[in-house]
Amino acid sequence: METAFGITGKGYVLIASDTTAVHSIVKVKTDVDKIKELSPFLLMATSGEPGDTVQFAEYIERNIRLYHIRNNFPLRPPSAASWIRRSLADSLRSRKPYSVNLLLGGYDVSTYKPHLYWMDYLGTLAEVPFAAHGYGSYFTLSLLDKYHDPEATVEEGLATLKRCIDEVSKRLVVSPDRFKVKIVDKDGVREIEV
Amino acid sequence: MARRYDSRTTIFSPEGRLYQIEYAMEAISHAGTVLGVLAKDGIVLAAEKKVTGKLLDLSGAKEGGYGGSGEKIFLLNSNVVAGVAGITADANSLVNYAREAAQRHLYMYNEDIPVEMLAQRLCDLKQGYTQYGGLRPFGVSLLYAGYDPHYNFQLYHSDPSGNYSGWKATCIGANSGTAQSLLKQEYKEEISIEDAISLVLRVMSKTMDSTTLGSEKLEFATLTLDAEQRPKAKIYRPAEIDALLRKHDLAKKDEDAEMKS
């Protein structure tokens, strides 16, 4: 079942998401990348209605790319979060709303600070030190309460993330078997093996 | 048929020129001078007011509003101040457009509009009038002094054709050539805001027609950062301009006061 986490640390944000595509009771695919690289310093993990997530994520990705091309600089994480929230909120009030929840992780190269945003399909936006979406959140938020450290190194952050993934694997009825993890820091976005 | 190629803005002359645009630029070279200098910790703008007269009611600029007489220097957004040269009515319309564009950006992105983007928005509008027929171009040049986290302090200039460019120090309006060559001689890299203020006042006093400077002929503004590193625009009130001129020894001597003493 769909699960995504985000953790901030000292100068970085980690985003993890399951990789399963589900149709009815069938697991169709186990290597889906649900974390989009929106810009050199921006990551977005999506969950929700299967078709909507892809469609909405691509719409956001291309518009953020267009902004970058037009202005020679990308949107900063706080502005990107505001714009994505506005897009979701406008969609919610349209004839056919997108039902997409997302986590947005970014590194602001002008203030040298990491940012993590939690957003749901109703257009709720919150900047948070750690976040989770889906059934996994019921098991992991308490873990993150205990183990999250905003000054943690990447190794420590990954260890905390590992705890969360292990807990979900242990307790969730239909647990996802693989997680994809990406990091964004001063060097940009990249994938990390766990 | 001598005026065949300058009656409409959108028709090229056989030499490939757009006369109406060039006339608009000419109009600006008679307008009050506007001068901008980029410093490492801020920007300074100064403007010469042409409309003066004893009967003109300037009480609005003394208190109320955000400073300035609303003739040459305007606050476009909390991070951008602009100096205008040209037809004041056209300038007012552009200032209105710029403020709206800045607020639209704030609504969409929850951040102050980047300075260059604001200049681009206005230039897109100005350029439109050089291409779509039946209308007159804006007879206005602007200097934008602004701050954004992408490129920090920035100074831009835009003209009626819709061209814009970034500067370390520049000048528009009457005598802008003289002022520019003075700035070229005296501008130093990494200049501080205090030195920039004195440079601007010095150049201004040399380029303006009148021999002495005073708040009735001058508008002045600075853009700096406050303690929380947020941009802070200050448009000087008449009393503050006079105080500044006295500090730099450029104020006109009050002869009556000297007689009394």
UniProtKB/TrEMBL annotation, chain A:
The keyword Cytoplasm applies. GO terms for cellular component: cytoplasm; nucleus; proteasome core complex, beta-subunit complex. InterPro entries: Ntn_hydrolases_N, Proteasome_beta2, Proteasome_bsu_CS, Proteasome_sua/b, Proteasome_suB-type. It comes from the Eukaryota. Keywords: Cytoplasm, Nucleus, Proteasome. Its main location: cytoplasm. GO terms for biological process: proteasomal protein catabolic process. The keyword Cytoplasm applies. It is found in: Cytoplasm; Nucleus. Component of the proteasome complex. The 26S proteasome consists of a 20S proteasome core and two 19S regulatory subunits. The 20S proteasome core is composed of 28 subunits that are arranged in four stacked rings, resulting in a barrel-shaped structure. The two end rings are each formed by seven alpha subunits, and the two central rings are each formed by seven beta subunits. The catalytic chamber with the active sites is on the inside of the barrel. Component of the proteasome, a multicatalytic proteinase complex which is characterized by its ability to cleave peptides with Arg, Phe, Tyr, Leu, and Glu adjacent to the leaving group at neutral or slightly basic pH. The proteasome has an ATP-dependent proteolytic activity. Belongs to the peptidase T1B family. This is Proteasome subunit beta. It comes from Phanerochaete sordida.
TrEMBL record, chain B:
This is Proteasome subunit alpha type. PANTHER family: PROTEASOME SUBUNIT ALPHA/BETA. One of its GO terms (cellular component) is cytoplasm. Its main location: cytoplasm. It holds the Pfam family Proteasome_A_N. Keywords: Cytoplasm, Nucleus, Proteasome. The proteasome is a multicatalytic proteinase complex which is characterized by its ability to cleave peptides with Arg, Phe, Tyr, Leu, and Glu adjacent to the leaving group at neutral or slightly basic pH. The proteasome has an ATP-dependent proteolytic activity. The keyword Cell membrane does not apply.
